[in-house]
Amino acid sequence: MDPIYLQLLVQGLAIGAIYGLVALGFVLIINTVNVVNFAQGEFLMLGGFVGLTFGALLGFPYWAVLVCTVIVFAILGTVFDKVIYQPLRGGDFATHLIGTLAAALIIRNVAQHIWGPEARSYYEPFHQKIFDVGGVLINPQHLLILAMTVLLVAGLYYFLFRTGLGRLMRATAQDRETARLLGVKVKHVGTLTFSMSLAMGGVAGVMVAPLFLVDLNVGFIAGLKAFIATIIGGWGSIPGALAGGLLVGLVEIFATHFFTAAFKDPVAFAVLMLFLIVRPSGIFSERVGDKA
Amino acid sequence: MRLLQYVVLACLIAGVVKLLGLSAYTGSILVFAAINILLCLGFYVIFGLTGILSLAHAAFMAIGAYTSGILSATYGWPIVASVCAGTLAAALAGALLGLPTLRLRSHYLVLVTIAFSEVLRQMLVNLERWTGGVTGLSVPMPSPVSWLGVTVDPSDRTVYLLICLLSIAVMVFALTRLRQSRVGHSFEAVRDDELAASVIGIDLTYTKILAFVISAALAGYGGALSAHFVGFISPDYFTFDVTVLVLAMVVIGGKRSIVGVMTGALLLTFLPEALRDLQDWYPTFYGVLLLVTLWVAPNGIAGRVGSLSFLRKRREPGTFAKPAGAMRP
Amino acid sequence: MVKRRGLLLLASSMLVAGLTNFASAQNKEVVIGVATAMTGTGAATGQQIAAGVKLAVDEVNAKGGINGAKVRLLVEDDRTQPGGSVNAFNKLASSNPVVIMGPTWTNFMLTLAPIIKRTEIPVFTSATGTKVTDPDVAGGWIFRAAPPINKMIQSLIDYASTKIAPKKAAIIYSNDEWGKSGYDAFKSAGFAFAAVETFNFGDKDMSAQILKLKAAQPDAVVVWNSLPADAGLVTNQLRQFMPDTKIICSNACAVDEYYALAKAGGEGVLTVAPWVPGITAESEDWAKRLKASDSHAIVSYTSAESYDAAMIAMKAIGSQAAAEPAKIREAISAIKDYKGIVGTYSFDERGDGLHGGTVVEWTDGKMKPVSATQ
Q1: How far is Cα C75 from Cα B136, in angstroms, rounded to an integer?
Q2: Does residue B302 belong to any structural domain of this protein?
Q3: Domain contains A94
Q4: Does residue C262 fall inside a structural domain?
Q5: Which residue, among A167, A180, A174, has the nearest Cα to A33 in the 3D structure?
Q6: Is residue C268 domain-shared with residue C135, that is, in the same domain?
């Protein structure tokens, strides 16, 4: 086999893992509060800037950057919950779409005022080093992201399906009123969800920064890809987020290889549509009950 | 209101605009507002009436704009004919998109319509020989016409505004009648409960495709109108952002009523201009205003205003209150 | 009920409409307008345009204005949207400016061209698309304070063909107006490519394309796109797979922002810069003045071009007795050998003021001019 295919496979999995990572934060919110958060991509963008601030401007070591990012985004998550989710609860898909998009606008504009419109670099922790493994070039940053994503998938799945608190959160998603009757503090479920999801998004942003650069324009495409990955992987499925992301990444890379970049998106969409025709519920079928 | 009343209202508004002698800037904004109203009316048919969230609106605008643009620029068609052709082409595309999406629900449908929009945009980029590709296409602006001794110059902003207002008048009249007709009730039935609708004998396929066709036609018409107004189009005028803007107008204004979507269109066309003084803080304020509106009125402004008590008709004692579903002007 | 509710809604929308006010110029004031991207994806460049013009206006006002009249600067945000640029331009035009500085994206200038023709105000732009100054596009009302793309590419090709003489070259360009016109310009200048790849705005992984470029084994790769951020991204990925191949880049690489992103990968990159900072004493002095006026302002060829454009415009205004746009247009066309920060301006019949760029190579973190004849 032509070694180029192996390299393409590596690249496809790498970019797919990133899509999966963003999709995870997205899927968590769907699983517990049933909202499609179109601002998820902006958290990736913001994560890069926050990481840059702690790492490059304040000089923290990498582990401290990650910890501080988690804290900052967890706090932002509670704000997001109070300001965006709670007031719009009960609205339909379109209302949430516009509401979260409005949030995305605000986040992006505020970020522009804080950090300026230019793109910046943040190459921690590997400083753009590349490894050559038997003729195939591997970027350790990609490995870090893949490891992180797999860990988060396992951890989230375990949390939501094997722990009491996770069960409470899923119960709230399936039937809020009954959960409340059973004594679940449903408001806190929302707050916890967004804190977790934003923290994941922020850390994703720090990890993706060496690859995508720290740039205000990163958010929109990331959000759209996460949305697609979620649908392909199975709406609401946690391992599906990663599986969907990987599939989208692979299809994109190979579509660019066999066609040109100009046709990459149409071909990728066509392949994904065909996939949905064959298996409409995605790779892993929907877990959240049929929400009309 | 009868059609004549709508037409007279349109002429009155245009007359007032002419009298006020507004600047090129305000005239231009008014034309954009009018075109946005037409786009929102189309979105109202598919989303507000039929309950289908299709995010392909920008694609239909592009089809209308490019068809009309190419026919008039490259083939020398008169603009009236090319705009009609653009509208028809968009309507046809609407039917084509409607067909495979009949069985899809919510987020899957959203994805397919987004995909359709992106694929179309890519085709516009690649079919360079006809569309001019990424470099764009210069579109002719209408030239003066003489009729019965009166010369009318459609490239004058007020005249163009009148054309748009007349179109709105006709469409509002038609849609009001449509909503009260059997077809309109079929649309709402599909929105409210698809299964029940098919059980009572409504042809789901026909109804949904018709909704797509009407909304796509209006989007195409709006796209063609804006192409001939600005004089230049390129594929990046028809991005997902445009569809999102129309969706925002409809959600903010109130997707369930014609007046609602018109209000949304007017508000979200004027608001960015009114906020100009905020310079580069504009997106934050715009986002905050959108959010505040959604907090106060999750069903749109029209829904909110409708619940203000002084606007409710007094009911005579002894009459039944109409069920909520039917009372939606 | 419909009528009452409808009227109330429409009335309140009209009220909002009434909030769209517009300023008008007072006596003894010259108004200069800037329509640029202050927000959106073009904000980085757009804000540089505003900064350059603002410095020029402030300096002229400090010296007493133009023939005693103060200069008033109006800035409108086009939000990096074509519809936005139409609204921004019209809003500016309603304040009767004498000159307008337009957006830097060629497509936006082409969108504005019919309106410029109708409004008949001279417009300066740093957009480099050749078509922008075509006579039939805006009837001669557009002036360019930047070298057009075909002339910049010619300088680059002259140098590359003689000094680098690649046996095989490849190109990766952005799938938009700027990238495409670069590719076409190279082709019409006779440059042949063994591999041609594109990427779309928003794409973050170009490895599939780069692998195909690598398979063609080129001696040089041309990278042609408009945003320095994307140029940096492509450079990073190119260097990952092709660490030693020569990179020839568009003027998106001729800014410090690019090198800050590409770092070591940017060393040795060949590009064409309309202006190279730090070469002359005047450039250094100007850069200091820009930073002093606004610490966030970026020193780049864009801010320098805008500064020069504003200065030229104000000089032309000053040379005329009345602030009549038609006369100002003639005055600008007549300018020859004006020494600006970026270079020496002589306006030709198309309205182009500069006719070439400086070919530079990034050396030790600075742009170093190189010459084909050395």
Answers
A1: 27
A2: no
A3: yes
A4: yes
A5: A174
A6: no
The H-assigned helical ranges of chain C are: 2-18, 43-62, 82-93, 106-119, 135-138, 149-159, 177-188, 207-215, 228-241, 256-262, 281-293, 301-319, 325-333
C40, part of any domain: yes
Residue C374, domain member (yes or no) = no
User: Would residue C352 count as lying in a domain?
Assistant: no
Residue B155 lies in domain: 3-238
Residue A285 CA to chain centroid, in angstroms?
Answer: 19
Q: Could you tell me if residue B293 is inside a domain?
A: no
User: DSSP string of C345-360?
Assistant: E---TTSB-----EEE
Closest C-alpha among C360, C370, C91 to residue C250: C360
Q: Which residues of A touch C215 (CB under 8 A)?
A: 4
Q: For B18-32, C210-224, C282-296, which range has the lowest pLDDT when averaged over its residues?
A: B18-32
State whether B262 and C10 contact (CB < 8 Å). yes
Q: How many domains does chain B have?
A: 1
Contact: C9, B23; criterion CB under 8 Å = no
Range of the domain at A126: 14-216
**Mean pLDDT to the nearest integer, A157-162:** 89
Q: Is the pLDDT of residue C2 over 70?
A: no
pLDDT, one tens digit per residue, over B57-77 is: 999 999 999 999 999 999 989
Q: Which residue of A has its CA nearest to C41?
A: A217
Residue pair C297/C303 in contact (Cβ under 8 Å)? The answer is: yes
A57/chain B closest Cα distance in angstroms: 25
Structure tokens at C331: 């005055």
Tokens matching residue A59? 């000089």
Q: Contact A160/A238 with Cβ under 8 angstroms? A: yes
Residues C132 and C156 in one domain: no
Helices then strands, counting H and E runs in chain A, come out as: 12, 2
Does some domain include residue B184?
A: yes
Residues of B in contact with C10 (CB under 8 A): 259, 262-263, 266
Q: How many domains does chain C have?
A: 2
Residue whose tokens read 């969108």? C111
Cβ contact C358:C156 at 8 Å: no
Q: Are residues C256 and C164 in the same domain?
A: yes
For B161-177, how does the pLDDT look when each residue is reduced to its tens digit (9 = 90+)? 989 999 999 999 999 99
The distance from CA A208 to its chain's CA centroid, rounded to whole angstroms, is 11
Phi, psi of C99 (to 5 degrees): -145, 150
Radius of gyration of chain A (CA): 19
Q: What is the CATH number of the domain that holds C227?
A: 3.40.50.2300
C298: domain range?
29-147+280-342
**Who has greater pLDDT, A111 or C19?**
A111
The continuous run of DSSP H or E covering A138 comes out as strand A136-138
Q: Which of A162-176, A178-192, C301-315 has the highest mean pLDDT?
A: C301-315
Give the count of domains, chain A.
1
Probe site for chain C from A214, A218, A256 (most C CB atoms < 10 A)? A256
Q: Rounded to an integer, what distance in angstroms lies between the CA atom of residue C246 and that of residue C324?
A: 51
